[in-house]
Amino acid sequence: MAFVLAVSVFVVLSHNNYFLLGDLNEPNNDDVKYVRSAETLLEGGPLTYINLDSGTEPSAFIMPGMPLLLAAFIGPLGQEGGITAFRLFQCLEQVACVYLLFLIARRVFNRRIALVACVLAALYPPDYFSSGVILTESTFRLLCMLLVLAMMVAVERRKLSGYIIVGILTAAAAYFKPQASLFPAVLLFLWLRDGYSFKEMLRYAGAVLGTYVLLLCPWWIRNWNTFGEFILFTRSAGSPFLLGTRIKYGLPPAGFFDAYPQYDPATIFKGWDSSAIDKGLDILRYGFSHHFWTYLHWYTLGKLEGLYIESYYWRPIWPIQRPFMDAMQKVLVCVTLVGLVSALVRERFGRLLPLLLTFAYFTALYIPFVAFGRYGYPTIVFMLPFTAYALCKVWDLLRRRHTVSGSAGEGYTFK
Where would you find the membrane-spanning parts of this chain (predicted)? Predict the structure, then answer.
């Protein structure tokens, strides 16, 4: 862990604003928009986000977690010092994630595989990029790992306090990315595995849900007071759904605009509210009706490729350049698949459930929406125990062969 902290801090301090995706003076990307939102809060303004407006009006385009977290650093240290401090905080998050990976992998497999998984995490370049970039992924990944571990412990101990902690962590994750809100539903499979009674399930589900609702109430009250309506999470769900229909960043297939003349190629992928959802549904209707196999491939293998083959490594760190990282990512996924299949064959299925359910939940969640490396990144860490499993099994096989070969060699004496 000391290695991870040292490398993360060195990368962050030596590269500094190299990791900025946009311009702080004219916010034009998510990272600098988060900074502007935090500064507006510190100036006594409302939660804002530069989207289709000037960025000064109250907004429900994003959840408030990231602006509030940034404000905690920028407030006492100013913009430059606050951003640096936030990046150093993300370095600590990376270290915490390595330790949590060890705890999770040890519970699922054993100490040896857990240690190998941690070594893999320490050598994974996107983690160091994530320490420097001002986005939600590092914090969200940490919260997800805490949530998975808390769920495993709660299921084992069967105490109400454990499930209250699960509710707290779910709400905390939702304040950064609302996608986490339904994740505790996977507890049902763990409860069935461990033979929970129906009464126990109801009791603990109520504890999780009640805690979650209580902690989300401030957000719902703020939205009601500001906009006069109930907004569950954000108003921006239409944008990722619409963009998710875009195959390889291209326009809808030929003939779409003849079938739907109300749309313009120049603006078809603009929008973020209910109108964006309507556009996306029309594209899907036409696409699956006229280009079924193309769209089926896109909504299966295409989305998986975007999530896990495309690396979250937008600012290369010397000496590892993007093409090499892309090749490493493909090797990682291939070895992980070997480990996954091997574990499914050799290990008890119930033991693997926490990792399998986490991977399945977040993968299925992004299939209908835009899917690329940034969104797959928080899930990659849950694949590493299977990667480590494959490497350990290969090592054991090679060692056995060497032992057998050596023993066979000792059995013959030539004179």
Answer: 85-103, 109-126, 138-155, 161-192, 204-221, 352-369, 375-392
